[in-house]
Amino acid sequence: MRKINDYYAKKAKKDKYPARSIYKLEEVQQKYKFLSRSDSVLDLGCYPGSWSLFASEVVGPKGIVVGVDLQQADQAPRPGGSPIHWLCQDIMAPEMVVEVRKFRPAFRVLISDLAPKTTGNRWSDSQQSLNLVRKTLALAEELLLDKGHYICKVFQGEDFPEFVNRMKELFGMVKVLKPKSSRTESREVFVLGMDYRKTGPERELQQE
């Protein structure tokens, strides 16, 4: 497995991406095509910028990418890519939504490679990961366009099935994925939700 990891690390360097995580997103995109030309994309936890760079290339010059992270990213988009707007913001802060909406009131795609600082305690790490992805899912409910798409990274734990079930309530299709470039020993998986239901039966009942 170490050889595979080295392969993707070297490939990222050769392809001039700041991190090997780009190939996880690329693999999912090749199969499910959740990113399209001219899309608006919000990237939560964007640093150091590989996912935003890839999304920019896919959506092209008529699209837009907004990347948010506590650390300031500064990668320039590739030739032919969309503009990328880097925001140094905390996704937990209400003002983050205000800042993001200065670029678009809502987005076609929300992507997130967010992960907590790991402690080595699997239970604790998975709980912290789920807390982060629950927040990104809540932001997806607030910021995604109808029929939009969402992908996040999560460390599997005992509450993971509950998270997947919640996604199934919100999206027309949900897939749990383990890209080839992920480490075999890692508990990380990626959850893809496609065709967001902006107004669903459950929420219509709540409004009545």
Structure description:
- The structure is a single chain.
- The protein has helices at residues 2-14, 22-32, 50-59, 94-100, 122-143, 160-170, 201-207; strands spanning 40-44, 64-69, 84-88, 107-112, 144-155, 171-177, 188-196.
- With 208 residues, it is an alpha/beta fold.
- The protein has a single domain (2-207), classed as Rossmann fold (3-Layer(aba) Sandwich).
- Strands 3-2-1-4-5-7-6 form a 7-stranded mixed sheet, sandwiched between helices.
- Helix 5 (122-143) packs parallel to helix 6 (160-170).
- The longest helix has 22 residues, at 122-143.
- It is globular and about 40 Å long.
- The chain starts with a helix and ends with a helix.
List keywords for this structure.
single chain, 208 residues, alpha/beta, Rossmann fold, seven-stranded mixed sheet, 7 helices, 7 strands, disordered C terminus
Question: Can you give me a brief rundown of this structure?
Answer:
The protein has 208 residues and is α/β, with parallel strands linked by helices.
Instruction: Note the quaternary state here.
Output: single chain
Q: What is the strand tally? A: 7
Mean pLDDT metric: 90
Strand content: 15-25%
End-to-end separation in angstroms reads: 54 Å
User: Uncertain regions: pLDDT < 50 for 5+ in a row?
Assistant: 201-208
As a whole number of angstroms, the C-alpha radius of gyration is: 16 Å
Could you say how many structural domains there are in total?
1
- Strand arrangement in the largest pleated sheet: 3-2-1-4-5-7-6
The H-and-E topology, N to C, reads as HHEHEEHEHEHEEH
**What's the overall geometry?**
globular
Q: Which sheet architecture does the biggest sheet show?
A: 7 strands, mixed
What's the name of the CATH homologous superfamily? Vaccinia Virus protein VP39
CATH class bucket: Alpha Beta
CATH topology: Rossmann fold
Secondary structure class reads: alpha/beta
Number of helices: 7
What CATH architecture would you give? 3-Layer(aba) Sandwich
What percent of residues adopt helix (DSSP H or I)? 25-40%
